[in-house]
Amino acid sequence: MRKVFPILVVVLISLLFVAPTVYAKPSEATICNHVVKTGETLYCIARAYGVSPWAIASYNGLVNPNSIYPGQVLAIPDVYMSIGGGPTCVAQCGGSPPPACTCASYHTIVTGDNLYRISLHYGVSMWRIAECNGIYNLNYIRVGDVLCIPSP
Fold first, then answer.
1. What pLDDT does 140 receive?
2. 50 with 81: CB under 8 angstroms?
3. Strands (E), 5-152
4. Which residues make beta-bridge pairs with 30?
5. Smallest Cα–Cα separation from 107: which of 54, 143, 63?
6. Considering only CA atoms, which of 147, 141, 134 is closest in space to residue 112?
7. Residue 1: what pLDDT?
8. I need a labelling partner for 65 at 20 to 30 A (CA). Which of 43, 49, 55, 152 fits?
9. DSSP one-letter code for 9
């Protein structure tokens, strides 16, 4: 047994260096390809297709979801997420800017808060709260920060 263990360790370490790296292919299928138009945001495109903006960003390998440009082709994954919107958002994305962020109220972040819970409390989409507060990572908010809560 003492002779087998070192040989087993050497074989396993060798396999780590020899075995090819395998990456998992996303299981989602592509609904369609969307050509970005002037004035469109990833958030608005996602609402039009009923898909999470982060799912589109991840599916297309976008490091910064805020840096899409007109003419860019985005594959829309078949990952349903009900965040409202639909045809009205498509019309809105046609070049007119999104509605201004007017604060209906303010929320001071306390321990245990997250954007999802805050959005449920105020009846406002967490994507809209993030957009109005310049939050790029929905999982990163800090205790003590004050959020502008736009009107629903």
1. 87
2. yes
3. 30-35, 73-77, 103-108, 146-150
4. 77
5. 143
6. 141
7. 59
8. 152
9. H
CB atoms within 10 A of CB 142: 7
Pairing label, strands 103-108, 73-77? unpaired
Q: What is the pLDDT of residues 54-63, one digit of tens each?
A: 888 888 888 8
Say which residue, 83 or 125, is predicted with more confidence.
Answer: 125
**CA gap 80, 150 in Å, rounded:** 25
Is the predicted pLDDT of residue 120 greater than 90, yes or no? Answer: yes
Mean pLDDT of 59-71: 83
Residue among 117, 56, 53 nearest 83 (CA):
53
CB 117 within 8 A of CB 143: no
Which structural domains are found in the chain, ordered by start?
Answer: 30-92 (3.10.350.10), 103-150 (3.10.350.10)
Q: Which two tokens stand for residue 79?
A: 């990952």
Summarised one tens digit per residue, pLDDT across range 85-112 is 444 344 334 444 556 788 999 999 999 9
Structure tokens at 142: 């800090």
Asked if the model's pLDDT at residue 43 lies above 60, the reply is yes
